[in-house]
Amino acid sequence: MPKPESFPIEKIFVPTKQKKAIKPETVREIAESMLDIGQQTPISVRRDGDHIVLVEGLHRLEACKALGETTIIGVLVPAELAQPKPQLAERPEVAAERIKMARLKQLRLEKEAAEASTATLKRVSATEAPRTRSTTGGRDNPKASPGRTAKSTPKTLSDWITQQKGSGGRY
Question: What is the pTM of this model?
Answer without folding.
Answer: 0.47
